[in-house]
Amino acid sequence: VQLVESGGGLVQPGGSLRLSCAASGFPFGYSNMTWVRQTPGKGPEWVSSISHGGAYTYYADSVKGRFTILRNNAENTLYLIMDRLKPEDTAVYYCARGRGSKGYLPPRDYWGQGTQVTVSS
After folding, report:
1. CA distance 60 to 44
2. pLDDT for 114 beyond 90
3. Which of 3, 14, 38, 91 has a C-alpha 20 to 30 A away from that of 113?
């Protein structure tokens, strides 16, 4: 499993970012996918998941209505579109193979290396 995130950076509150995750080494089109985030000193937090075909999406309450998870199976790429960003969204964002939820995260071995998102004025 190889997952490479990109697109993080510094953005002002209220701004937007698009994260990408390039996947290889496994059947991406048959895999549910998840975004997870983590801040220093805190445990990882589930953000969003998407079914293998893209028909079903799931979001944490903290990002619902502001973030959109998408995937392009032809290009083996997962996306997270983040709008109306808040300072509390600052974290390292990881894509992961597998389904997640509020109480469950995919195994750590199935995560990418992460990309830093900083929301600050």
Report:
1. 13
2. yes
3. 14
